[in-house]
Design goal:
mainly beta; 11-stranded mixed barrel; 11 strands
């Protein structure tokens, strides 16, 4: 690793620790700490691609499993700035009476690039079925991401914001606030390390508020 990359990594670690420690000192009864870890595989065939993902989420200060899910799907790169994909997700949520969710997900992502700076807007529609409650949920998710690729470096820092809104009349649900870094380990191998503040529409112990995340992606 280059000296500059070591400096960037050290600064990132310092920022992450600062972001976690500040809210921890002001922690109230509804605050919590957890982790999100994931493994993702993406196979491209030119413009079309297929993907699979496994993710685990902890809460209660990393002592319990909030939820986990598996995903499989595919997509298409329509242009250099527009792609869309369709996927199925199977969720198990121990933190909410161990319910199951089956999700159909449709998303489109538009990306604007200028030199090493990029901004991406993603619109995602989720249709979820909960068999234990014989109920359905329709959710719209909007995500904005800004990132900067450091020249001749393995690091790409980013900021990201996403909110969830119900299409069934429940209004705003929650929002995610990220500060993170993508790390290129080699051809097709990537790490995603981030801190996230997870803000819910209602208070309660059903999820983590302050999170550290680590994801690995293999793309080929």
């Amino acid at each position: 690793m280059k000296k500059r990359d070591c400096i960037v990594a050290s600064l990132l670690a310092f920022v992450m620790l600062a972001l976690v420690s500040v809210p921890a000192r002001a922690q109230n009864a509804t605050d919590d700490f957890g982790t999100w870890t994931s493994l993702q595989v993406v196979k491209s065939f030119g413009a079309p691609y297929v993907m699979a993902r496994l993710e685990h989420r902890s809460y209660r200060n990393v002592t319990g499993t909030e939820s986990w899910f598996v995903m499989a799907g595919g997509g298409f790169n329509f242009t250099k700035w527009l792609k869309g994909d369709l996927s199925y997700e199977f969720w198990k949520i121990p933190s909410a009476e161990n319910i199951t969710q089956h999700k159909g997900v449709l998303s489109f992502t538009e990306t604007l690039r200028r030199d090493n700076l990029a901004f991406a807007l993603r619109e995602k529609y989720e249709f979820a079925y909960i068999p234990e409650k014989q109920s359905f949920r329709n959710t719209l998710r909007i995500r904005l991401r800004g990132q900067y690729t450091i020249p001749e470096s393995i690091f790409t820092p980013y900021l990201m914001y996403e909110f969830f809104s119900s299409l069934d009349g429940r209004g705003w649900i929650r929002s995610l606030h990220y500060a993170g870094m993508d790390i290129a380990l080699g051809k097709g191998h990537f790490l995603d390390f981030f801190y996230m503040y997870h803000l819910y529409g209602t208070s309660g112990p059903n999820g983590s508020r302050h999170l550290l995340g680590l994801g690995y992606t293999f793309a080929f």
